[in-house]
Each structure stands twice: as C-alpha cells, then as structure tokens.
TrEMBL record, chain C:
The lineage of its organism: Bacteria, Bacillati, Actinomycetota, Actinomycetes, Kitasatosporales. PANTHER family: ABC TRANSPORTER PERMEASE PROTEIN, SUGAR ABC TRANSPORTER INTEGRAL MEMBRANE PROTEIN-RELATED. This is ABC transporter permease. It comes from Streptomyces cellulosae. The chain crosses the membrane at residues 65-88, 95-117, 154-171, 204-225, 231-247, 252-272, 278-296. It is a multi-pass membrane protein.
Length: 373, 535, 311
C-alpha cells in the first residue's frame, strides 16, 4: 500500500466519522424534542381520560408563565433554585457517584445562611456574601460525610445520602419549630434576615414587577459556567471524568480516586448549599418549614435530562421550571391538578433513560444510508 | 434430558455457506463450509478476529448466521439460543469460564438442569451426579468446593463436566489452555482424548500451534472470516499452519542486538507480600539494569500480577524494599511511582488499562493531565490534549479517524497500541510490560516487540511479564522464574534456553539454589544501607 | 430510665414493633429479590405508594377490601415488570428508571385522587375499610408475646412469613437457584440455557408484589385510607435494610425488624418530653453508623463490594 493510498483512506475515514458525528448530534437533538412531545401527548391523554379539557389546560400551562411579568419572575426564581440543585448532583454524577443528598445539603445551606443573616451584623455587600459562603460551606460539609464514607470505606452512597437527608430534614424541622422560631408569632417560621443580607430583586434593575426573582439568577448562571469550565478545562475536571469513566483506570494512572470522589461530593454540596442561601436570602427572607419542597429530587431529574453537562442543566432547569410554573397557573384557572406536570416530568425521565431508543434509531438511519449507497 | 434425534450418517456438526454480518456492518464470517465427522478432534486456528469464535458461537446458538445453515447431527438446525444447542447435544467451554463463583462445583455442573422434583433442587443428588461423572471421565473435581476457591484447572474441568452432564456429543473448547499449567494441559489433553475415544466430537480453538499439533486429528485454518483450508494434523507443521493463518511466511523472531546493560535501575530486596486473597510473595531479590529486558516466567497466578502491581505502586509490599535509581519507592503513591519513572502496561487492558467510553485523547494523558504542556496554572488546554494525541496516533500507527473516538471502538491491537504509546511516551526509566501481546493480532504483536526492544536500546530497564514462553525467550536478555510467589530460577543468558527447560522450573521440578539466584547482587538486607543513598 | 424500660418491655410496644416493621419487612424482601436478580429496585417507594392508592380507591368504590388489596398488589407488580422492561428492553439505568417511576407514582396517585375526589390530601373522604386481623386460637394465653401477637393484621403475619419464604425460595427451589445465578453471573446463566430475561422479569414482578403488599398494608391495615405521599421514604429505608442485611434473607429480616423497633421506640419516647423530630432521627443515625461500621469491617477483611451494591 502506497502512502498516498493510505492517506486517501484515512481522509475518507475521517470524513465518514465526522458525518456520523453530525448525524448522531441531529438524532440526539430531535430525540430530546420528540421525548418532550411524547410526554406532553401522554399528559394530554391522561387529562382526556380523567374528563378534563386538555387543550385549554395546555394553553394555560404553556402560555401562562409569560402572560404577566410577575409570573416571569416566579418562573426565574424557581428556575434558579432548581438549576442550582441540578448542578449540585451533576458533578458527583460525572464521577459516577449516585449522590441523592441534595436535600440534606440545601437545608444545611439554608440554616447556615439564615443563622448568619439573622444574627451576625455585617456591613453592606459583605452581609450578602458571608451568609452565601456559610451556606456553601455547610452544604459542602454535608456532602463530605457521604463522600468520605464512600471514598474511604466504600459505603454505599445511595443509602448514606438518603439517611442523611432523613436526619437533616428532621433536625431542620425541629430548629424551625423550636430554637429558631420567631417568638410571639403564631405561624411557624424564623425571624426575618437583616435587610442588608437580602439578594437584590431583579425588579429593582428592570423596573417591572418580577416577584421574588433576584440576582441569585445571575449567581446561578455564573455557577453553571464555572462548573462547565471545571469539568472541561481543569485537571480536577479531567480526574472527575476519568473516575466516572473507569475508576480502576484512574487509579492506575496515578489519580487519587478517593480524593476525587470526595471533591465531587464537596463541590456538589457547596452548590446545593448556595441553593439554600438563595431560598433564604432571595426568596423567603427567613426560614420556613419544608422550604425546598420536592426541588431536591427534581434537581436530579434536571441533571439527568441534561446528561450532567452544566450548561445544558441551565436549559433543562429553565424548561422544567416553566412546566412547574405553568402547572400552578393551570390548577388555578382550570380543574386540572398541577400534579399532571409531575406525571409529564416522570414520563420524560423514563424516556430519557431509555438509552436504547436513540441508539436503535441511529442504527436504523445508518443502515438505511448504507443501503442507499 | 431428551436429545433430539441425530441422523445416522454424516457430520456431527457442519456449516454450509455460513455468513455472519453484525448490525454495525462488520462481516465476521464469510461463506464458511466446515464439516466435522463424529469422534474427531478438530482444531480451528486463526488470528484474533479471524472469525473462529464467531463461528463457534453460531454452533452454540449464541449468534445466528446471517446466511447459510448450521447442521447438527446431520440436519440443518435453527439454534435460537444455547438452550436449543444444548438440547441437540452441543456443549461449549468458553475462554472466560462461565461459572457462578459463589456456587459449589456440583451446583455449577447441574445449573440449568438441576435434579429434584416439582421445582425444587436436590443438593445431594447434584453432588452424587457430579462425583459419578468426574469418576467416569477422569476429570477430578471436589463437588462440594465453592468455585471461587478452587484452581483455574478445576474450574475448567467443572465446565467440561457441565457439558457432559448435559449429554453433550459435541464439545467446543475455546482456547482452553490459555490459563493452565503445562501439567494441567497434559491432563486436559488426556481427558479430551478419552472423550474422543468414547465417540465425542471435539472442536478445539487455539492460537498455540504446538498444542494444536499435539491434540488434534485435523486442523481447519481461518483467516479474515474465511476458511482457508483443512489439513490432517500429521501433514502440518507449525510453520505451514502459521503461513496459512497470516497468508505469508511470517516469522516472529525479533531482531535484536545483544543488550548493553549499564547501571542498576530497579533494585528489589526481600520483597514480601501478604494478602487475604491472592498470591503471596516471599523474599524476592533481583535487579534490573538500564538497557536490558528481564523476563518473568511462571504459570499464571504464581505472583506475577502482584509483583507488577507492587512495582507500579498499586499495592504496598508487606516487607522488603524497592529502589528505583537509588530512590526508595516506599511511601510513594501511584503518581509518585510514575514521577519516579515507572511505566506500566497492565495485564488486563479492559480492567484498568483504559477508560473505554473516554476518547483516545483522554486515555493518552491520564498520567500527565496536570502539567505542561497540557495544563498550566490549574488550567487544562483541550487543544494541547488533542495535539498530543494526534502526535502519538501518528507515531504509534494507531488506526482511527479521529482522537475524539472513544477507545471502545478500537480493536484489541489498536487499544493496546494506545496504552503502549502512553506508557512509552512518558520516557520511563523502568517499563513493566505485563501480557503485552495478549489477544492482539500478529501485526500488532510484532509492533509491540519492536517497541520494547527500541525502549531497551534507548536505555530503559524493561521487566517483561508474560504467559507466553516463546515471547519471553525471544525478547528477554535475562529470565527469572516465579513459582508460588518465590523466585525459583534465574538465567543470566537466555541463548540456547528452551521452553521445555524453563517449564521444569515453572512446574517446580527443578530449582536454582539461593547462591545462584542472588549472585552479583549487592546488599541483601532490606535496609537503606545502600552507600549511594547514605551519602 | 425505668419508664423507658417499662415501655419497651410492654406487650403494647411489641405489638407496635410488629405493626411498624410490617411494611419495612415486605418492601425490604422486595428489594432483596430484585437485588439478587441483578436489578436494583429503587422504585420500591413508588410501588408501595401506587399499591396503597389503588387499594384504597378500588376498595372504596367496589366495596370489596379483597378486590382492593388484589388490585393494589397487581399495580405494584406491573410497575416491577415495567422497571424490568425499561432495564432489559430499552437499556435504561435501573436507578434512574426507578427515580422516574417514583416520580410517576407520586404525581400519578396525587393526580388520580384529586381528579376523583377533588381532595388534595388523600382518600379520607372515601370509606374503604381494612384487611382483616387474625388471632390464632390460644395465642393470647402466651405471656407478653400473646398480647402482642393477637389481633395483628393479616399482612403482618404474611410479612413475618416472608423471611422463611424468601430463604426457601433462594436456596431450595430451582427458580431461586436460577435467580441467584442470573444476578451473580448473567453470562454463565445464559450459557447453560437459563432464560435470563424471564428470570429477571419474574424476580422484579415478585419484588413489586412484595412492595405492593407493603403498600396495601399502609392504606388498608395501618390506617384505612390513602394519604398523599404516605410511604414517607419507607421504600428507601427498606432499601437500606437490604444492604445492611448483607443481601441475605435473615440478615435483611433483622435489619428491617431493627428499623421497625427503632421507629416504635421513637414514637414511645416522643411521649416523654423529648422533641419528637430529634427522636425520630434515631433509626437513620443508627443506619448511617451501621453502614459506616459495616463498610469499615468489610474493607478490613479485604472483601470486594457485592457487584450490585457498588454501582
């Protein structure tokens, strides 16, 4: 074989490879859209079967969040927390650690942020940053417990994070009902945070009422960009990716796998802690019972939808929150329960995790193209 | 068990114009015609990827032909799965044994066709049946032992008993000797001959031409998915079979000049290792000098893996010292070992040699991702990683369209080239090469040999661990033999050394005295008395 | 202190332990069967929830407790089969698919209850009844234990029979033999002609059925109506018991019983002027510590983590 023939073959190989990559990307994108569409169709059928008017319900759900500026604010505020929680699990997931601990981390973060913001007098600006830092540190600490148990002892992280969630949620409940409860108030919540510690509302900047949306949204965007850079542009990110791809290979290559696992938990925990700070300093201005609702678990769904890519997590988080916001408006204006949104979300998760579907499709397309030639 | 009726005459198994094309377009088997009469031992040989395993899987129902017909007992059959092949009397012993580790030998033998009534298992009957089968066939096993606790040889005998218990009339053995000691191989061959004399048809898949000549009645040679030809074993020589396999006369003799060893690079003293599971090591003393290849021979599982992993820093020794260029490696982690100049080609590349779903580029930088030119001040530059990969892909002739291809898509030989490229491009002072040519084709094998010799000539110390004696004798300047975790032989000159002779030491028939093993080594205590270090 | 002892030694406390441990035991055995078949069933929670909701609704509308219980178990069984299908046919990750099924169950049950009864909280407006209690003749004459045992729900008896049943199934029957082989070495099982997928489907169906029985107990035994998200994480605790019990029937039995006892203790101590939220963390703290100790011991012994658990 001559050199020129060899080069010709290689160029041909390369062209074919690039074409395959382009086609796979197109299939992935259309699959994502088809998945969402399929889930909406299933929701449509469920509503129809339960005697509701799905057309009207979808109309309200899909246009409602944009109709008034404060509804947009409601959407962005929810998306901020949800995306931060999605980012918080995407990092350990990248190291193939099934951390389900965002719940414990977000409550720990909320407690830390509230404690500082309520009780420690600080000058302006610093009064915003210190509680957030405290929240990130508390979340990171909550991440370190299951992280170290997994990395040092090999304890199952799914069980450890679930147990920690159960513990922290109960301790939080105790503190809000007991020591931190505002005295003299009949409702259960803490004292309000100091004025200087509040995250600036977006309404102040845009001059339209945007509800409780605040500059936490910008913090979330910055965090996502930083995490994307961490994963793709730093040695630690490389170590996280290799640990996820094959821990035995990583260890053989000189990577300290236990330390990488711990870092992935700690970074994820810190981000979830920030979500807690956002809830306290930006949304509620104090501690309330069950402050994070089911957001921690839904963050997992967002991360999965985005295949743990930090930038895509933002898009998935915005989309998902849009559905949630629309669902609430739908329940107010029609008879359809907002839970239909959860059903739609669940169907999306199930379709996304069915990885054989896109592969089947890709293979079929590839075969057809071979046939055409 | 009811075997379906076989035709009176004709071949036990046959393939008629069988073609297998996988969904990804790879044509593994092309229009193969093969007939094996009852009571014959038929060897099927070929390079990796020649299609022999795929053909056997079709006989066993694990794959279905895309075109053509599979015949068992003289009739065309549709084998939808192993269950239908088993029902027709076809048994297969896979290369990687298909046993349940926590089950006993007897439980594994009866698995799938357990004795007992109404959905229950009768454990006593299972043990009795296994013991009876073992006695009849001469395949000795302990029916009550757990499979995870018995030797590889016994596991393989368990596999064969499994097939016998299912009343197999055709037995497919896929590379059965790869993990056996020479003695166990002999016993296996004796048992196989006995089975053949009792009417069993045996299909014997192998790379090892010497064993093929010893055991088979006829040899079928496959190349690139096609059947090249079938010859009577008596008429074949290793050389003629090899030329049929590769299509030209290819000698694996490696050209190498005599070694010019200089100063001692690796110095191992009193090295011991104790493990809850796995092989122990006892008091190993040896040196490897820069510019020489030292081979480590031994039947697999005699401490080679443990030795390699200790030297690479993946395990900690219980006693003794390891010095590299005078530096004590105790207390160094894996990265520290690599920084000290140790490269390691691991024995199982799929287990820890590569991250299969990561790109070629990422696989090439695992040991250097945190320093220039790839990373500066905590920032990793993807462009630099890609350029680094393109350079090595060219230099090591890795066949791939792009560095971003996941290594899962590469063939065995190409994947091994990625690993060797990474380890050699680090410029190691000591290269530990473990089973470096296992499962790669002859072209890649040759490539690896040339690179190892080139590394030696460039001044690296090379420790070559292999189960392939031909390879060891062809490449090693000096040779050590491990048995039961001890050094039992040391040959400072490998010219004229024969496989048979080394085999005697591997089996423990002969042993060198301690004087001969340690002659020329400096201090033999494990302490830091090395004068080069105290100054 | 003596008051605590009095509480713990009373037959009322023992009866509470048996009652509280019932859903843990059943769900944990469900988790065990799936785990040994090689597919982690993290959807135990959703299966319990769906069964609890279906049971209460069907019983309420049909007036037949038995029909309700059977439909509840059937729905959970179907969810088990669905998980297996997602894993085996569509290549889904079992953990993620399990999370999806849990979400589906949480949203679906709440949506169904709201659509049918216009109630956000549960089915307390619908009269659905309970499964029968059973008192063995003469058992009340046994001191302490007699009072604890008499009048326990049918499902509680079934839960305690589940341990010997699963042990017998695993180690004595052909199906259990195949199930363990499939979970440990699917290739080996397939190579001897065992229908691997069929075994896994059956295992996951059984797993779902056991979880379903646990769910039916919650809405038709523990109380007599369905409350939104009434499983309250029991499915996850049961999963913890599976690992804590070392993937062995009697180990899982002890772990699940331990969780039941700890929770019963928390309820009893709650009456003694200790903050109930803090007392109720006790079983979880215990699990966390036990998990760490168990992992540490296993690590010291140098044993490998079981394949399904390492993930």
């Amino acid at each position: 074989m001559t050199t020129t023939a060899m080069t010709a073959i290689e160029t041909e190989d390369r062209r074919q490879y690039r074409a395959t990559r382009r086609r796979d990307f197109a299939v992935d994108l259309s699959m994502a859209l088809a998945t969402i569409l399929a889930a909406l169709v299933i929701g449509f059928l469920v509503m129809l079967a339960t005697g509701n008017d799905p057309v009207r319900a979808y109309e309200v759900m899909l246009t409602g969040p944009l109709e008034r500026s404060f509804r947009v604010g409601r959407w962005l505020e929810d998306a901020t927390t949800l995306t931060l929680l999605g980012l918080s699990v995407a990092i350990p997931f990248r190291a193939r650690q099934i951390s389900l601990g965002a719940e414990s981390q977000v409550y720990a973060g909320a407690l830390a942020a509230a404690t500082v913001a309520i009780f420690v007098p600080l000058p302006p600006v610093v009064a915003v940053i210190v509680p957030m830092a405290a929240a990130a540190a508390a979340g990171a600490g909550m991440g370190l417990v299951p992280g170290a148990m997994k990395a040092r002892l090999g304890a199952n992280e799914i069980v450890a994070t679930l147990m920690l969630n159960a513990i922290v949620v109960r301790v939080y409940d105790y503190l809000v009902n007991g020591p931190l409860k505002e005295s003299g108030s009949s409702a259960v919540h803490s004292k309000s945070i100091q004025q200087d510690s509040a995250l600036t509302p977006l309404s102040d900047w845009f001059g339209v009422p945007l509800g409780r949306a605040n500059i936490g949204f910008g913090v979330m965007l910055l965090t996502a960009a930083a995490l994307w850079l961490l994963i793709t542009r730093t040695p630690l990110g490389y170590r996280i990716r290799m640990t996820g791809a094959n821990p035995d290979f990583a260890a053989y290559g000189g990577i300290r796998v236990p330390r990488v696992i711990e870092w992935s938990f700690v970074i994820g925990g810190a981000v979830a802690g920030l979500a807690g700070a956002h809830l306290v300093q930006g949304v509620y201005g104090r501690l309330e019972p069950g402050l994070a609702g089911s957001l921690a678990f839904e963050g997992i769904v967002v991360a999965l939808l985005a295949r743990n890519n930090p930038l895509v997590v933002v898009i998935a988080g915005l989309f998902y929150s849009y559905l949630r916001a629309g669902g609430d408006i739908m329940e107010q204006q029609t008879d359809v329960g907002t839970e239909i949104v959860v059903v739609i979300q669940a169907v999306i998760v199930l379709l996304v995790t069915a990885q054989a579907l896109p592969n089947l499709l890709k293979r079929r397309i590839a075969r057809r193209q071979v046939g055409v030639r | 068990m009811m075997n379906e009726p076989w035709g009176k005459a004709g071949p036990a198994v046959a393939a008629r114009q069988v073609t297998k094309t996988y969904a990804n377009g790879v044509r593994a088997v092309r229009s193969v015609d093969l007939e094996v009469p009852p009571g014959e031992i038929r060897a099927v040989v070929g390079e990796n990827g020649a299609g022999k395993s795929t053909l056997m899987k079709m006989f066993y129902g694990l794959e279905q032909p895309s075109a053509g017909a599979i015949l068992v007992g003289g009739r065309p059959r549709v084998l939808r799965g192993p269950a239908s092949a088993i029902a027709l009397g076809v048994g297969m012993v896979h290369q990687n044994l298909m046993l349940v580790p926590s089950f006993t030998v007897a439980q594994n033998v009866v698995l799938g066709v357990e004795p007992g009534r109404r959905g229950l298992v009768d454990p006593k009957a299972a043990v009795e049946r296994t013991a009876r089968l073992a006695e009849e066939s001469g395949l000795t096993v302990d029916p009550r032992a757990r499979v995870e606790e018995v030797s590889v040889g016994m596991r393989q005998r368990t596999e064969i008993l499994k097939a016998l218990h299912r009343k197999a009339r055709v037995l497919i053995l896929d590379e059965p000797t790869a993990v056996l000691t020479p003695q166990e191989t002999e016993d296996l061959f004796a048992a196989v001959r006995r089975l053949r004399d009792g009417g069993m048809t045996v299909l014997f898949i192998s790379h090892k031409l010497r064993e093929v000549r010893e055991i088979s009645d006829k040899v079928s040679v496959m190349r690139a998915g096609s059947l090249v030809g079938t010859v009577a074993t008596a008429d074949a020589t290793e050389r003629s079979l090899a030329s049929m396999m590769v299509g030209r006369d290819l000698s694996l003799d490696v050209e190498r000049s005599p070694a010019r060893p200089t100063e001692t690079t690796l110095r191992v003293r009193c090295l011991g290792y104790e493990a809850a599971t796995g092989q122990w090591l006892h008091g190993l003393d040896f040196d490897v000098a820069a510019g020489e290849i030292v081979g480590v021979a031994g039947i697999e599982g005699n401490g080679q893996s443990e030795l390699a992993e200790i030297l690479a820093g993946l395990r900690r020794p219980s006693t003794g010292t390891v010095h590299l260029d005078g530096t004590d490696t105790a207390g160094l982690d894996v990265a520290g070992h690599r920084r000290a100049g140790i490269g390691y080609v691991p024995e199982d590349r799929l287990y820890n040699g590569a991250a299969l779903d990561a790109s070629i580029a990422d696989n090439l930088v695992v040991d250097r991702h945190d320093r220039p030119p790839l990373a500066r001040r905590g920032v990793l530059y993807p462009g630099a990683v890609r350029a680094h990969a393109e350079e090595l892909i060219g230099e090591y002739a890795i066949r791939t369209p792009d560095p971003s291809v996941p290594v899962r898509a590469l063939s065995g030989g190409n994947l091994q080239k990625v690993i060797v490229a990474r380890e050699l491009s680090a410029g190691p002072r000591l290269l530990i090469a473990s089973q470096v040519t296992r499962g790669v084709d002859i072209g890649a094998m040759r490539f690896m040999y040339e690179r190892l010799v080139a590394a030696r000539d460039a001044g690296a110390a090379v420790l070559l661990i292999s189960a392939d004696l031909t390879e060891l004798l062809g490449l090693s300047d000096r040779l050590l033999v491990l048995k039961d975790g001890r050094l039992v032989a040391r040959f400072d000159d490998t010219t004229g050394l024969t496989e048979k002779r080394v085999g005697l030491y591997m089996l423990g028939v002969e042993e060198h005295g301690r004087d001969r093993l340690t002659v020329g080594l400096d201090t033999l205590t494990a302490g830091p008395e090395d004068p080069g270090e105290t100054t | 202190m003596s008051s605590v002892l009095d509480v713990v030694l009373s037959s009322a406390f023992l009866a509470a332990v048996l009652r509280i441990a019932t859903p843990y035991l059943l769900a944990a055995f469900g988790g065990l069967v799936a785990e040994r078949a090689g597919i982690s069933n993290i959807a135990l929670e959703g299966q319990m929830l769906s069964a609890a909701c279906t049971g209460a609704l069907v019983a309420g509308y049909s007036g037949s407790v038995a029909l309700g219980a059977v439909s509840g178990v059937a729905v959970a069984t179907l969810l088990g089969v669905l998980l297996a299908a997602l894993r085996l046919e569509l290549g889904a990750d079992a953990i993620i698919a399990g999370i999806g099924l849990n979400l589906l169950a949480s949203g679906g049950t709440a949506y169904a209850v709201y659509s049918l009864l216009d109630d956000k909280g549960g089915t307390s407006g619908l009269k659905s009844g309970s499964l029968p209690s059973i008192t063995l003749p003469g058992v009340e004459n046994v001191p302490v234990l007699g009072d604890a045992l008499s009048g326990q729900n049918l499902v509680t008896w079934l839960a305690f029979l589940a341990a010997p049943f699963v042990a017998w199934l695993f180690y004595r029957t052909r199906f259990g033999f195949h199930l363990r082989a499939v979970g440990e070495m699917p290739d080996a099982a397939e190579s001897v002609g065992i229908a691997v997928r069929r075994v896994q489907y059956t295992g996951l169906a059984l797993s779902g059925a056991l979880a379903g029985l646990a769910g039916v107990f919650l809405s038709m035994g523990y109380v007599s109506f369905f409350v939104r998200d009434m499983t309250a994480g029991r499915g996850f605790i049961a999963l913890a018991a599976v690992f804590l019990g070392g993937l062995r029937p009697w180990g899982v039995f002890l772990a699940a019983l331990g969780f039941g006892a700890a929770e019963a203790l928390a309820v009893q101590l709650g009456t003694l002027d200790v903050p109930p939220q803090l007392v109720s963390t006790i079983p979880y703290v215990m699990t966390l510590v036990a998990l760490a100790l168990y992992a540490w011991r296993r690590k010291r012994r140098g044993r490998a983590v079981p394949a399904a658990a390492s993930l």
